[in-house]
Structure formats: structure tokens, C-alpha cells
Amino acid sequence: MATEFPALNVLINNAGIMRPENLLAQQPDLVDAEAIVTTNLLGPIRLTAALLPHLQKQPRAAIVNVSSGLAFIPLALTPTYCATKAAIHSYTESLRYQLRGTPIEVLELVPPYVATHLMSGADDPRAMPLDQFIAEVMSIFKTQPTPAEICVERVKGLRFSAASGKYGVIFAGLNEARPDGH
After folding, report:
1. For 41-100, how does the pLDDT look when each residue is reduced to its tens digit (9 = 90+)?
2. Residue 121 has pLDDT above 70, yes or no
3. In the chain, what are the domain boundaries?
4. What is the C-alpha to C-alpha distance for residues 80 and 82, in angstroms, rounded to an integer?
5. What span, in angstroms and rounded, lies between the C-alpha atoms of 129 and 9?
6. Which among 81, 97, 113, 167 is annotated as catalytic?
7. Running DSSP on this structure, what letter comes out for residue 115?
8. Burial zone of 84 (CB within 10 Å; 0-12 exposed, 13-18 middle, 19+ buried)
9. How far is CA 102 from the centre of its chain?
10. 87: left (phi > 0), else alpha (psi -120 to 50), else beta?
11. Which helix (H) or strand (E) holds 105?
């Protein structure tokens, strides 16, 4: 890829499979869980590893990893998805630390529940409209050009639930209000 696009200086890891899982009735082969881990976690790790040597040669570069508000408070219906997004958050923190002092900026985008086709949220009125999400993210980039984390207002309750002392209440509300994942 680097030979085809020698000026490439931004990597956006936006991988996501989100499937409901009933852990009490889980199949012994773990096909869904393994696919989610492979796509959501190993995909970004592998792509970052493959492109890191090229990005290090650029005068300025950025890696943007997309996690989720569910990395900070899991939706019990989708345990592997939430676990992989929590792992992406942790991986991003470590990557940012290891790349400090290099020309590579490491950012984390933390989306809330956005109206996309992930878990049939495209038509859910409770989901943040995609155009509003994009507009707010772009506004953050314009006003804070180098934020470590990009959190729109709608996700801050999840992201900072532990710090605010509201983790238990929000966890219960999220999981009791959405037993079907919506």
C-alpha cells in the first residue's frame, strides 16, 4: 500500500462487528466471538503494524483508532464487541505513549450510539443521527486540532462514568433499558 500511496500519512482504524451474544447458550466453536475479535481488535493491530514503518517516515502522520462509548460501560448483550473496544482504548493509550516523540499523532474517536447499520441502529430514533455525529466530530477537530480523545457530548456520560461516580447507575440503566441491544 505504501508504494501505491507514498504520501499516505493518516490511518483510520474503523473496524466493527457487533453481534448479540447469549453467553449461556454460546456455541462451543465461538465463531462469532472470534470473528469479532479478529475484525475489531486484530484488524487494527495488524494494519497499524503493517503501516507503522511507512508512517514513521512521514514528516507528520496520524493514527485514529475508533473505539466506542461501550468500551467504558459495556452493553451486556454484546460482550465481545464491548471487550474489543475496551481493548482498542487500551491499545491506543499504549500506542500513543510508545510513539510520543515521533511525528505520529495517535487519536481515539469514541462514538456514542450512532444511527448506522451496526446492530440495526440506522432507523433507531434513540441513536445519534450520523450527520450530527460527523458535524460535531469535525467541529472538535477544528477547535481542538490535536485532542487525544474525540468525544462528542452524547458519549461523555459513558466515557466519564467512572470518574463521575455514576458507573453503576449508568450500567444498570443501559442494560435494563436495552435488553435487546437497542
Report:
1. 999 999 999 999 999 999 999 999 999 999 999 999 999 999 999 999 999 999 999 999
2. no
3. 10-177
4. 5
5. 29
6. 81
7. S
8. buried
9. 23
10. alpha
11. strand 104-110
Pairing of strands 10-13, 149-151: unpaired
* CA angle (104, 162, 19) in 5-degree steps: 75
Least confident interval from 12-26, 29-43, 73-87: 12-26
To the query of whether residue 113 is one of the catalytic residues in this protein, the response is no
Split at pLDDT 50, 70, 90, the class of 177 is: low
pLDDT at 179 over 80: no
CATH architecture of the domain 10-177 equals: 3-Layer(aba) Sandwich (3.40)
Q: How far apart are CA 181 and CA 91, in angstroms?
A: 26
